[in-house]
Amino acid sequence: MAAYHENLIFDNQLPVKIILHTDVNWKKRTVLSHWHNSIEVCYIVKGQPGDARINGQKYHLQPHQLYLIGPNIIHSFDTVVTQQAEILTLLIPLTWLSDQFDYFNKAIFQVGPVNVDHPGHKLLEKQLQTIIDYKRSKNPSANSKLQTVGALHYIAYLILGKMIDEKTEQSNDLELGSPLLIQQVMSKIQHDYQHNLMISQLSEDNHISETHLIRIFKKYVGVSPKNYLIQIRFDEAKQLLHQTSMSVEEIAQKTGFGSAKNFFVLFHKRFDKIPNEYRHKNKQPESFHPNH
Predict the structure, then answer these.
(1) Residue 32 phi/psi, 5° resolution?
(2) What pTM, to 2 d.p., does this model score?
(3) Which position among 70, 102, 191, 214 has the lowest Cβ density within 10 Å, counted as fewest Cβ atoms?
């Protein structure tokens, strides 16, 4: 399924989930808008991999920049990850930080970016490099793991001490999390994309005008509800083309495109090839679900 609320599983070896996006076989990857109940740190190791949208704000990712994504914040990525354009992702469980932070539930997260190559962030740059070296090692030593745990604790210190503010009654800053309404609409689209969803019905169900729903949805997700629905359908259709032997007619019905003819026309218009051609010529999906 495509992205909506993401359930993250953490192991017991390290307190934080670490992903170094550096697979040379990846093509263009689009992480659809989603949210999860953890803190995400995104560090651009090198290159210019593309764009991110975090809580309605678009960012062009630059080398040595660090971004902080708070829990339940809607975000998405449109990137090309190669050996020349790498991204490091740290997924931090809330429980690891909330016990250390008295006003965590009133937190305001400063998205960034933090320019890590600034002279004032030499220690941060060193700790990030320790984490990167650990992930690149095929058989990290016990000492390397210990150094990495120390580096992760420094990152936690940075978040708690430098990138979180306490909300005051006078504060106009964005509170923890994105609008629940948008998350509800995204989840509805995600669960019912194979049906004949109408934007007018979504607005009526949520007691909001269609115009207002489209405006705020586009602000946080980057596309209109209709285009998000189409993205979900295409994402699922491509997965089925890659992973199953289902006929094009079956896929068209299963993903909400209706007739095979309609699916053929829309698919060719979007990807400049028909579904069967895409199935045979593409060995890697162009978009993926945010398992990170």
Answers:
(1) -60, 155
(2) 0.72
(3) 102
